[in-house]
Design goal:
Blueprint (H helix, E strand, L loop, with lengths): L1 H53 L5 H15 L5 E3 H10 L8 H10 L3 E3 L2 E5 H8 L1
Antiparallel strand pairs: 1-3, 2-3
Helix pairs in contact: 1-4, 2-3, 2-5, 3-4
Amino acid sequence: MSFIYSKFIGHANVSLVSSRRLMNLTIVRAMSTRESVDAVQKLKTAVESYRASHFPEELPSRCRKHIICAADAESFQTGDISTNGLHKVLDNIGLSNQVTKEDVMLIINTHGAREAHSEITIPVNDMLDILS
């Protein structure tokens, strides 16, 4: 009888530990989500200010598509944008002082990151959705 009881208690302890870990992960994810929202807003603001300064006649959606296509080209046109590819484009157009590489990594990691060619990437369509 004590064997069954100790098994039950042991299982309850594991469950308690697991729920504590889950709660900690939830708190960390909430903090990273808040930071991600800020990073996305920084990226949107930087792209829009770039468009307004350099291509005022261009539609905002067209400018976003050009930037995403350039990032895809930097990522070897795989249909996935790498952190390095997007950051290089931002650097080339002078936005890397507004949107850091850490911001780009946070955006990609939070919004559907996947690994391709040993780099963390995000599909082109997902990145277009983020910028819209």
